[in-house]
Design brief:
5 helices; mainly alpha; about 150 residues; about 5% strand; two-stranded antiparallel sheet
């Protein structure tokens, strides 16, 4: 399905998919995770290159500790001198909000209704399943189903 995503959404999707990429899951789910990681990687790489360029543009303003190590906030963004902080944060926000159009590989929500009596697969919590379904399943179709079934 073609969809518009922000760079922020791409980063979150990559993080979600990577969390499950090494788990033993039914083949259709595992394939969808791998395929979407590959599809998202090019846009993620563009985002990272732009982010690193932004960091290098502000290199003279990045705060460092006594050992010259870059100091970062809780999400890994370098802390900059207060005189450029507002401008720096605006540029990061602009980068995160850039929209890209991408065609992701989707699977049916029914794929998550599998039996594992032989314990071949890693267990998924309800939260894990919800996160994976949000990334791997066509939300427009599930919305239609909820409306027609509700």
């Amino acid at each position: 399905m073609n969809m518009k995503l922000t760079n922020f959404a791409v980063v979150n999707m990559i993080n979600t998919l990577e969390k499950f990429a090494e788990k033993k899951l039914p083949q259709k789910i595992s394939y969808a995770i791998t395929r979407n990681l590959i599809l998202l990687q090019k846009d993620y790489d563009c985002y990272l290159k732009s982010l690193n360029k932004l960091f290098s543009n502000y290199d003279d303003y990045i705060v460092r500790d006594e050992n010259e190590n870059i100091m970062s906030n809780e999400v890994g963004i370098p802390i900059v001198d207060s005189k450029v902080e507002k401008e720096f944060n605006e540029e990061i926000s602009n980068l995160l909000n850039i929209e890209i159009e991408i065609k992701l590989y989707c699977i049916s929500e029914e794929v998550f209704n599998y039996e594992d009596s032989a314990n071949r697969y890693d267990s998924l919590s309800a939260s894990d399943i919800m996160n994976l379904r949000a990334v791997l399943c066509n939300q427009e179709e599930s919305d239609k189903n909820e409306v027609s079934n509700g």
